[in-house]
Amino acid sequence: MTKAAQAPATYQLMKTRLQEQLPNGDTRCNLCLWRCNLRHGQRGFCQAHVNRNGTLYNLSYGILSAIDIGAIEDKPVKHFQPGTRVMSVGSYGCSFRCQGCHNLEISWGVSSLDELARGESTAAYVTPLELIEAAKRHAVDGIAFTYSEPAVWLEYVLDVSELAHEHGLYTVYVSNSFVSDEALELMAPHVDVLCSDIKSLRDDFYYNICKKAKVSEVLASIHKAHELGIHVETRTNIIPGKNDSLEELRGIAQWIKQHLGVDSPWHITRFFPAYQLNHLPATPSEIMWAAHDAAREAGLNHVYVYDDKGCDCAQENLPLETYLSTDPVSLNSVKKCAASCCGDEGVLIKKYEKRLQE
Ligand code: SF4
Ligand code: SF4
User: Which of 142, 274, 318, 333 is buried deepest, with most CB atoms within 10 A?
Assistant: First the structure.
């Protein structure tokens, strides 16, 4: 029986797939390159993984923040099964804190994860099989994990992907590529397409959105995915005054050519003002097309400019129940962990937090 088929029918915390006991008693999460070292009661940077008595658990397994259906080209992915439709899903938490993020409530959705931790959440829990059934009902061709970094709920991503392949659906992973090699190795047999951001070639740009991230690590992660045989397409969202020097953009194109090949697609998207970068203008078309021309001169064969498209946003989506057959009352019932290891209350992290304060 596949892991997906064994997924619990009701919400519960699931063991983090990549965890490691350290000599000092901490447990390390190796899903993303934060590689958080956590003690009992602590949660990782993404807030979606918690240490309980030395074992890490994912709080957000099966918890959906958004669903949408659209063309695969909108991810953006242009060189894998063009003309097909994909069901996009996301959950809460992210490994980055981009100042211009359009998916704030999801990606920085720590209050939703706090509610899950306290056993007070009414977020939707959808088993892998229920999600695949919804995808089949809506006659889509694939499933995309997007809206925030999927590594922070990789347990679910892997189970859904495995089941998706069994049902003839392809899988797409939209990433910031701050992902560990071990996670990429786990996903390689089950993920068909990685749509990966190259946000900048400057460490100081990454430092502002993730203090631990280095350009070299992000690029190495993208290259590793390519080496593992995943179909990789890259994207750069050009932000005025932040990553819009032509020299830097040409450098991104040269890196793609050298490491992913002349035929690897590069998608150039437009920045639209949001959150902490609300004071900046939208990206002028001129710089997007100048980047396009520089990339073509550098030898890249497939460069796409999106005047009308920024990040893969979840803001305009229909309510989840539009896509699911579950009735809204049970979909929005209070989620408490169904596992018995913490007693009748289920898993209430608050209980551990209180105990730590005593
Ligand atoms: S997924 Fe990343 S940010 Fe979240 S706990 Fe694991 S290593 Fe930390
Ligand atoms: S833009 Fe993407 S990577 Fe950055 S915080 Fe938002 S969801 Fe996370």
Answer: 142
DSSP β-ladder status, 27-29 and 19-21: antiparallel
Who contacts 240 (Cβ-Cβ below 8 Å, separation ≥6)? 271, 280, 281, 282, 283, 284, 287
Q: At 322, give phi and psi (nearest 5°).
A: -60, -35
Please report the atom of ligand 2 found closest to the CA of residue 106: 7
Cβ-Cβ contacts under 8 Å for 89 (sequence gap 6 or more): 64, 66, 67, 131, 143, 144, 145, 146, 147, 160
Residues 6+ apart with CB under 8 A from 50: 13, 38, 41, 42, 43, 44, 56, 57, 59, 117, 349
- Please work out whether the CB of residue 311 comes within 6 Å of at least one atom of ligand 2: yes
- Nearest CA to 252 out of 240, 241, 279, 264 is that of 264
Query: Which sequence spans correspond to the domains of the chain?
Result: 66-106+124-306
Fold for 66-106+124-306, please state it.
TIM Barrel (3.20.20)
Measured in angstroms, how far is the CA atom of residue 283 from the centroid of ligand 2?
18
Mutate-to-test residue for ligand 1 from 16, 17, 30, 36, highest number of ligand atoms within 8 A of CB: 36
Which atom of ligand 1 is least distant from the CA of 47? 4
| β strands within the chain, DSSP E | 14-15, 19-21, 27-29, 37-38, 49-52, 55-58, 63-64, 66-71, 85-90, 124-125, 142-145, 170-175, 193-197, 231-238, 266-270, 303-306
Q: What's the pLDDT at 107?
A: 87
For 26, list phi and psi in degrees, rounded to 5. -70, 165
Closest CA to 136 of 164, 117, 159, 161: 164
User: Distance between CA atoms of 216 and 274, rounded to whole angstroms?
Assistant: 27
Ligand 1 shell residues, CB under 6 Å: 29, 31-32, 34-36, 44-46, 48-49, 95, 151-152
pLDDT tens, residue by residue, 53-88: 899 999 999 999 999 999 999 999 999 999 999 999
pLDDT in tens, 128-163: 999 999 999 999 999 999 999 999 999 999 999 999
Residue type at position 55: T
